[in-house]
Structure formats: C-alpha cells, structure tokens
Known about the structure:
0% helix
Amino acid sequence: MTHNGITHIEKSWFQDLGGLKQLDLSQNAISEIHHDDLENLHSLEFIGLSGNQLISTDYHIFDSFRSAVEEIHLSHNRLSLLHDNLFREMWSLKVLTLKFQIYSMPSVYQSLTKLLR
Length: 117
C-alpha cells in the first residue's frame, strides 16, 4: 500500500485481517493514526509508516500487536513527541527506525532490550 496518496487509515480496512504479518503504508500522506485504527492486526510483525506526515502518535496505536511486532519504521515523518509508553513491552522488537524527525523521547528506549538497530 505504499505510494498511494493515502491520507488516513480506516479501521474497517483491516477488520478481517487479524493474521496479517506485514503492513507497509510508507510514502503516503498519513498525518495521524487513531488508537483503534490498527486494533485488529494481532499478528503484525512488520509495520512501515516511513515517509508520511505523522506529527504525533497515540501511545496505544501498537497495543494490539505489541507482543508480536519485530520491526517498526517511522523515519521521514514530522514526529515531535514520542510518548514514554509507545514501545513498552515490545519484547520482540528488533528494528526501530526513527531517522529524520524532530522529536523528544525522554525514556522511550528504556524497555527495548532486544533492539538490534
């Protein structure tokens, strides 16, 4: 779903995709994601959100796949604040990209013990 000019996410798009492993929404124009937009994606291991227009994130957006996710790509957005709990209890997370942001992240990396890069 990359390079499609998507400006928002509809919760209904993923209603019957609970087993989806990878979701790449990179290079679109998404400016916000609501906490329940991705709630049906319990098995998600990879999420690509790089190259969008995200300014901030709800700290619950990753809750439904928190234990499964291994890679999160958020580079090239306009993130200015990352909540302390955004990546909490992501024991499987190995790759997190946040390049080219203007952000404040007090202790967001604190619980990421398996992070490789």
